[in-house]
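Hi team,

As requested, here is the filled-out complex form for the S-adenosylmethionine run. I kept the field names the same as last time so the parser does not choke. Let me know if anything looks off before we queue the next batch.

— J.
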Amino acid sequence: MPKYVDQIFNEDALQALHRIPDASVDLILTDPPYGLGKDYGNNSDKQEAREYLAWTERWIDAVLPKLKPDGSLYIFLTWRYSPEIFVMLKQRMTMINEIIWDRRVPSMGGSTRSFTSVHDTAGFFANSKKYYFDLDAVRIPYDAETKKARSRSIFVGAKWLELGYNPKDLWSASRLHKENPERVDHPTQKPLEIIERMVLASCPEGGLILDPFMGSGTTAVAARRRGRHFVGFELNPDYCQIAENRLASSEATLQILNNQPSEPVREKLAPSELMAAPTRRGRPAQKKQEQSSVKTPASLRTEKMQNTGSQGIETKQTEIEMQTSLWSENI
Ligand SMILES: C[S@@+](CC[C@H](N)C(=O)[O-])C[C@H]1O[C@@H](n2cnc3c(N)ncnc32)[C@H](O)[C@@H]1O
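And here is what came back:
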């Protein structure tokens, strides 16, 4: 395994990305500064609009050559700059989806001159038409009620009913409020459940995920939980330490189960959708893959990162045991 794999470097991504070989990464999954003035212990989110967009274009051009031909990219943004940044990316890649993350922020007053913004925008882009995408890994199981509603003989034993349905592009999952056990000391930490869905859908098992803006290490933790590798950068040494702690904790325990999210983003079928569920003729195509046959070894040797300053990160071996989810429902 190359030395840079499974490490987060406390460095400026723009200065360090050149160390990652071109065409070596399966998935770029990133959540850059949004340009909204957040305090990350540095000025990265405090650039004026034109400067911010020019900087964004620079890192996009530095990161895209790292992707394999069938690789893809997810980028979290805000509505303020997603139009400009999506145009940049559309000039370089194929846009597959705009995903809206509904953060489920409760209404608490706020501006009287605008509507309250409660969503982040995530763009999903692919390098080519042959991009990797494993729909079966992220299907949402139908609940017992739904299955019962489809109990007519033509549906009995229908595989689509067992496989579950395709997640839509509106993902409703609570932001990580202070009471949430997953929450660490980072102002814009993303919930694992949404990052894991992207990982499962768009990176093959054992593949490599690059996040140039790791923050508290959510992408790395999601990768490890799902049997993928990671590499990334983070400017703030305190966040690197937080990421290291998360990777060393049980939070980063490998989840094998049946390769589906253990805590899928909650979505309830509306009665109208029940009626529109696919018929035998329109049933979803099935991949040639056994549902619960993730061939993961009983234990996995992985590297634990340890910060050694700007020279990089030493590695130490730890053993990750297979076990079922430690997570309780958090939304
Ligand atoms: C939106 S946050 C990422 C949060 C992350 N997704 C999480 O769940 O914790 C963006 C991060 O990028 C870091 N950052 C900003 N500019 C950077 C750069 N040039 N290189 C590396 N990291 C950078 C910031 O310090 C900040 O922690």
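Two things worth flagging: Residues 7-321 form a domain with the Rossmann fold fold (CATH 3.40.50.150). The chain is about 25% helix and 20% strand.

Thanks,
J.
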